[in-house]
Amino acid sequence: MPKRILAVANQKGGVGKTTTAVNLATALAAVGRRVLLIDLDPQANASTAFGLQRDPHRQGTYEILSGAAELADVLVETPVPQLMLVASSMHLAGAELELVGAQGREYKLHSALHNTSHAYDYALIDCPPSLGLLTLNALVASDGVVVPLQCEFLALEGLSNLVQTIDNVKRSFNPALAMEGIVLTMYDRRNGLSEEVARDVRSHFGKRVYETMIPRNVRISESPSHGLPILLYDHRSTGAAAYMKLAGEVLKQELQGAD
User: Taking the CA atoms of the chain, what radius of gyration do you get in angstroms?
Assistant: First the structure.
Protein backbone atom coordinates (compact mmCIF):
# COMPACT_ATOMS: atom_id res chain seq x y z
CA MET A 1 0.00 0.00 0.00
CA PRO A 2 1.15 3.61 -0.45
CA LYS A 3 3.08 5.08 2.46
CA ARG A 4 1.12 8.32 2.23
CA ILE A 5 -2.26 8.94 0.59
CA LEU A 6 -3.40 12.49 -0.18
CA ALA A 7 -6.79 13.55 -1.52
CA VAL A 8 -6.73 16.68 -3.67
CA ALA A 9 -10.19 18.09 -3.07
CA ASN A 10 -12.39 21.13 -3.39
CA GLN A 11 -16.10 20.90 -4.12
CA LYS A 12 -15.87 24.09 -6.18
CA GLY A 13 -14.81 23.61 -9.79
CA GLY A 14 -12.29 25.71 -11.67
CA VAL A 15 -9.87 26.13 -8.78
CA GLY A 16 -6.91 24.22 -10.23
CA LYS A 17 -7.70 20.94 -8.48
CA THR A 18 -6.78 18.56 -11.29
CA THR A 19 -3.88 20.78 -12.35
CA THR A 20 -2.51 20.53 -8.81
CA ALA A 21 -3.05 16.76 -8.56
CA VAL A 22 -1.32 16.10 -11.89
CA ASN A 23 1.60 18.46 -11.41
CA LEU A 24 2.22 17.76 -7.72
CA ALA A 25 2.28 14.03 -8.52
CA THR A 26 4.75 14.71 -11.34
CA ALA A 27 6.96 16.89 -9.15
CA LEU A 28 7.09 14.24 -6.41
CA ALA A 29 8.06 11.63 -9.00
CA ALA A 30 10.69 14.01 -10.40
CA VAL A 31 12.50 14.01 -7.06
CA GLY A 32 12.56 10.22 -6.91
CA ARG A 33 9.35 9.26 -5.14
CA ARG A 34 7.21 6.38 -6.41
CA VAL A 35 3.82 7.94 -7.05
CA LEU A 36 0.34 6.70 -7.90
CA LEU A 37 -2.22 9.17 -9.27
CA ILE A 38 -5.87 8.12 -9.04
CA ASP A 39 -8.38 9.89 -11.29
CA LEU A 40 -11.60 9.76 -9.25
CA ASP A 41 -13.35 12.46 -11.28
CA PRO A 42 -15.85 11.31 -13.95
CA GLN A 43 -14.71 14.26 -16.09
CA ALA A 44 -11.40 12.36 -16.47
CA ASN A 45 -9.28 15.51 -16.74
CA ALA A 46 -6.35 13.97 -14.87
CA SER A 47 -6.36 11.12 -17.39
CA THR A 48 -6.49 13.36 -20.45
CA ALA A 49 -3.73 15.52 -18.94
CA PHE A 50 -1.43 12.56 -19.69
CA GLY A 51 -2.76 12.17 -23.23
CA LEU A 52 -5.18 9.33 -22.53
CA GLN A 53 -8.28 9.30 -24.69
CA ARG A 54 -11.51 7.83 -23.40
CA ASP A 55 -11.55 4.09 -24.06
CA PRO A 56 -14.66 2.00 -23.31
CA HIS A 57 -12.46 -1.07 -22.85
CA ARG A 58 -10.00 0.48 -20.40
CA GLN A 59 -10.56 -0.45 -16.78
CA GLY A 60 -9.98 2.15 -14.11
CA THR A 61 -11.35 3.66 -10.93
CA TYR A 62 -14.89 2.40 -11.49
CA GLU A 63 -13.70 -1.18 -11.69
CA ILE A 64 -11.70 -1.01 -8.46
CA LEU A 65 -14.60 0.66 -6.64
CA SER A 66 -17.04 -1.98 -7.87
CA GLY A 67 -14.66 -4.83 -7.08
CA ALA A 68 -14.50 -5.92 -10.72
CA ALA A 69 -10.71 -5.44 -10.81
CA GLU A 70 -7.72 -5.21 -8.52
CA LEU A 71 -5.55 -2.11 -8.44
CA ALA A 72 -2.72 -3.98 -10.17
CA ASP A 73 -5.03 -4.73 -13.12
CA VAL A 74 -5.82 -1.10 -13.95
CA LEU A 75 -2.45 0.66 -13.70
CA VAL A 76 -1.45 2.82 -16.66
CA GLU A 77 2.08 4.01 -17.34
CA THR A 78 2.59 7.75 -17.78
CA PRO A 79 5.40 9.64 -19.57
CA VAL A 80 6.79 10.43 -16.12
CA PRO A 81 9.20 7.85 -14.67
CA GLN A 82 7.95 6.40 -11.36
CA LEU A 83 4.45 7.84 -11.84
CA MET A 84 1.58 5.42 -12.48
CA LEU A 85 -2.03 6.34 -13.16
CA VAL A 86 -5.41 4.80 -12.44
CA ALA A 87 -7.56 6.39 -15.11
CA SER A 88 -11.15 7.50 -14.83
CA SER A 89 -13.37 5.06 -16.70
CA MET A 90 -16.47 5.51 -18.85
CA HIS A 91 -18.69 4.11 -16.09
CA LEU A 92 -17.47 6.24 -13.17
CA ALA A 93 -20.29 8.77 -13.57
CA GLY A 94 -22.76 6.10 -12.48
CA ALA A 95 -20.67 4.83 -9.59
CA GLU A 96 -22.13 7.30 -7.11
CA LEU A 97 -25.64 5.90 -7.59
CA GLU A 98 -24.44 2.31 -7.51
CA LEU A 99 -22.51 2.86 -4.29
CA VAL A 100 -25.55 4.15 -2.41
CA GLY A 101 -26.84 0.67 -1.61
CA ALA A 102 -23.47 -1.07 -1.36
CA GLN A 103 -22.28 -2.55 1.92
CA GLY A 104 -19.24 -0.69 3.25
CA ARG A 105 -19.71 1.86 0.48
CA GLU A 106 -17.41 4.42 2.12
CA TYR A 107 -14.47 1.98 2.24
CA LYS A 108 -14.27 0.75 -1.36
CA LEU A 109 -11.23 2.83 -2.32
CA HIS A 110 -9.64 2.33 1.10
CA SER A 111 -9.79 -1.44 0.60
CA ALA A 112 -8.36 -1.26 -2.91
CA LEU A 113 -5.39 0.87 -1.82
CA HIS A 114 -4.64 -0.91 1.43
CA ASN A 115 -4.82 -4.40 -0.05
CA THR A 116 -2.41 -3.84 -2.90
CA SER A 117 1.08 -5.28 -2.79
CA HIS A 118 2.43 -2.49 -5.02
CA ALA A 119 4.70 -0.16 -3.08
CA TYR A 120 4.33 3.59 -3.53
CA ASP A 121 5.65 6.51 -1.55
CA TYR A 122 2.61 8.61 -2.42
CA ALA A 123 -0.87 8.13 -3.81
CA LEU A 124 -2.66 11.30 -4.89
CA ILE A 125 -6.40 11.18 -5.51
CA ASP A 126 -7.97 13.73 -7.85
CA CYS A 127 -11.47 14.12 -6.43
CA PRO A 128 -14.58 15.27 -8.31
CA PRO A 129 -15.82 18.84 -7.65
CA SER A 130 -18.49 17.68 -5.19
CA LEU A 131 -18.80 16.23 -1.70
CA GLY A 132 -20.58 13.02 -2.72
CA LEU A 133 -19.70 9.36 -2.24
CA LEU A 134 -16.70 9.44 -4.56
CA THR A 135 -15.05 12.22 -2.56
CA LEU A 136 -16.08 10.50 0.66
CA ASN A 137 -14.28 7.34 -0.52
CA ALA A 138 -11.16 9.42 -1.15
CA LEU A 139 -11.29 11.05 2.29
CA VAL A 140 -11.82 7.73 4.07
CA ALA A 141 -8.83 6.26 2.23
CA SER A 142 -6.49 9.22 2.77
CA ASP A 143 -4.03 10.41 5.38
CA GLY A 144 -4.43 14.07 4.43
CA VAL A 145 -6.25 16.53 2.20
CA VAL A 146 -4.63 19.08 -0.10
CA VAL A 147 -7.08 21.87 -0.92
CA PRO A 148 -6.43 24.03 -4.00
CA LEU A 149 -7.99 27.47 -3.53
CA GLN A 150 -8.03 30.10 -6.25
CA CYS A 151 -6.90 33.67 -5.51
CA GLU A 152 -10.19 35.17 -6.62
CA PHE A 153 -13.20 36.90 -5.12
CA LEU A 154 -15.28 34.68 -2.81
CA ALA A 155 -12.43 32.17 -2.61
CA LEU A 156 -13.41 31.17 0.90
CA GLU A 157 -17.03 30.60 -0.05
CA GLY A 158 -17.84 26.94 0.40
CA LEU A 159 -14.51 26.08 2.00
CA SER A 160 -16.23 25.82 5.38
CA ASN A 161 -18.36 22.99 3.94
CA LEU A 162 -15.23 21.06 2.98
CA VAL A 163 -13.66 21.65 6.39
CA GLN A 164 -16.88 20.42 8.03
CA THR A 165 -16.89 17.34 5.80
CA ILE A 166 -13.28 16.56 6.76
CA ASP A 167 -14.21 16.87 10.45
CA ASN A 168 -17.23 14.58 9.95
CA VAL A 169 -15.09 11.97 8.19
CA LYS A 170 -12.55 12.11 11.02
CA ARG A 171 -15.26 11.48 13.60
CA SER A 172 -17.12 8.75 11.74
CA PHE A 173 -14.69 6.92 9.45
CA ASN A 174 -11.05 8.01 9.51
CA PRO A 175 -9.65 9.48 12.75
CA ALA A 176 -6.22 9.91 11.15
CA LEU A 177 -7.44 12.25 8.40
CA ALA A 178 -5.85 15.71 8.50
CA MET A 179 -5.99 18.93 6.56
CA GLU A 180 -2.60 18.62 4.89
CA GLY A 181 -2.66 22.13 3.55
CA ILE A 182 -4.30 24.76 1.37
CA VAL A 183 -2.48 25.71 -1.82
CA LEU A 184 -3.31 29.08 -3.34
CA THR A 185 -3.71 28.85 -7.11
CA MET A 186 -4.10 31.28 -10.01
CA TYR A 187 -2.07 33.89 -8.15
CA ASP A 188 -1.37 37.06 -10.14
CA ARG A 189 1.08 39.43 -8.48
CA ARG A 190 -0.09 42.24 -10.79
CA ASN A 191 -3.59 41.95 -9.36
CA GLY A 192 -4.11 43.49 -5.93
CA LEU A 193 -7.08 41.20 -5.36
CA SER A 194 -4.81 38.13 -5.47
CA GLU A 195 -2.68 39.51 -2.66
CA GLU A 196 -5.76 40.50 -0.68
CA VAL A 197 -7.24 37.01 -0.99
CA ALA A 198 -3.92 35.43 -0.02
CA ARG A 199 -3.74 37.57 3.13
CA ASP A 200 -7.35 36.74 3.97
CA VAL A 201 -6.83 32.98 3.61
CA ARG A 202 -3.62 33.05 5.64
CA SER A 203 -5.33 35.03 8.40
CA HIS A 204 -8.06 32.37 8.60
CA PHE A 205 -5.93 29.23 8.30
CA GLY A 206 -2.41 30.26 9.33
CA LYS A 207 0.22 27.55 8.90
CA ARG A 208 -2.22 25.27 7.13
CA VAL A 209 -1.66 27.39 4.01
CA TYR A 210 1.40 26.43 1.96
CA GLU A 211 3.98 29.15 1.38
CA THR A 212 4.06 28.24 -2.31
CA MET A 213 1.49 30.00 -4.48
CA ILE A 214 0.77 28.65 -7.96
CA PRO A 215 0.86 31.53 -10.46
CA ARG A 216 -1.63 32.20 -13.19
CA ASN A 217 0.59 30.92 -15.99
CA VAL A 218 -0.25 30.38 -19.65
CA ARG A 219 2.14 27.41 -19.91
CA ILE A 220 0.24 25.59 -17.16
CA SER A 221 -2.98 26.21 -19.06
CA GLU A 222 -1.50 24.94 -22.33
CA SER A 223 0.12 21.76 -21.06
CA PRO A 224 -3.02 19.54 -20.72
CA SER A 225 -3.89 20.07 -24.40
CA HIS A 226 -0.50 18.53 -25.22
CA GLY A 227 -1.09 15.57 -22.89
CA LEU A 228 1.84 16.56 -20.67
CA PRO A 229 2.28 17.84 -17.12
CA ILE A 230 3.95 21.23 -16.88
CA LEU A 231 7.34 19.76 -15.90
CA LEU A 232 7.51 17.88 -19.21
CA TYR A 233 5.85 20.57 -21.30
CA ASP A 234 8.03 23.47 -20.09
CA HIS A 235 10.28 22.74 -17.13
CA ARG A 236 11.65 26.29 -17.21
CA SER A 237 8.27 27.93 -16.68
CA THR A 238 7.24 29.66 -13.48
CA GLY A 239 4.45 27.11 -13.13
CA ALA A 240 6.88 24.19 -13.17
CA ALA A 241 9.08 25.91 -10.59
CA ALA A 242 6.06 26.52 -8.35
CA TYR A 243 4.98 22.87 -8.36
CA MET A 244 8.52 21.73 -7.60
CA LYS A 245 8.54 24.11 -4.65
CA LEU A 246 5.16 22.80 -3.50
CA ALA A 247 6.47 19.23 -3.68
CA GLY A 248 9.34 20.31 -1.45
CA GLU A 249 6.87 21.58 1.15
CA VAL A 250 4.88 18.33 1.01
CA LEU A 251 8.07 16.31 1.52
CA LYS A 252 9.05 18.58 4.41
CA GLN A 253 5.68 17.87 6.04
CA GLU A 254 6.35 14.15 5.69
CA LEU A 255 9.72 14.48 7.43
CA GLN A 256 8.26 16.59 10.22
CA GLY A 257 5.50 14.06 10.74
CA ALA A 258 8.06 11.27 11.07
CA ASP A 259 9.96 13.11 13.82
Answer: 17
